[in-house]
Design goal:
The chain has 66 residues and is an alpha+beta fold. Helix content is 29%, strand content 44%. The strands form 2 sheets. The chain has a 3-stranded antiparallel β-sheet, covered by helices on one side. A two-stranded antiparallel ribbon has the order 1-2. The two termini are 19 Å apart.
């Protein structure tokens, strides 16, 4: 099971129900909001959003054999 670590939090990818991605191409910013078990919403700051997306893209590559 893949686990996302950020700050003092640990979230298994299996607990994530949905993500909302906001980005500003010209400002080089990306922000991720996570919806996890129990309906909890978590808004990630820029550094954590980048780490999450890197791990999420790696998860996609692994599962899709890309």
């Amino acid at each position: 099971m893949t686990i996302f670590h950020f700050g003092r939090h640990t979230v298994p990818f299996s607990d994530i129900h949905d993500i909302n991605l906001q980005y500003n191409y010209h400002a080089n910013e990306i922000f991720v909001d996570l919806e996890v078990n129990g309906g909890v919403q978590m808004s990630l700051n820029l550094p954590d959003s980048i780490v999450f997306m890197e791990q999420f893209i790696q998860k996609i590559k692994t599962e899709k054999n890309v």
